[in-house]
Amino acid sequence: MTVLILTGEEDVTADMVVVRLNAASVPVVRLDPADLTAGVALSGEYVHGSFRGHLSAGGRLVSVSGLRSVWVRRPGAPAARAAHPSPWLTEEAGQALYGMLRGSGARWMNHPDAAGRARHKPWQLRLAQRCGLPVPATIVTTFPQAAREFAARFPDLVVKPVSGAHPQEPPRAVPTSRVAPDTDFAAVAYGPTLLQRRIAK
Question: In CA terms, which of 45, 85, 92, 186 is 20 to 30 Å from 35?
Answer without folding.
Answer: 45
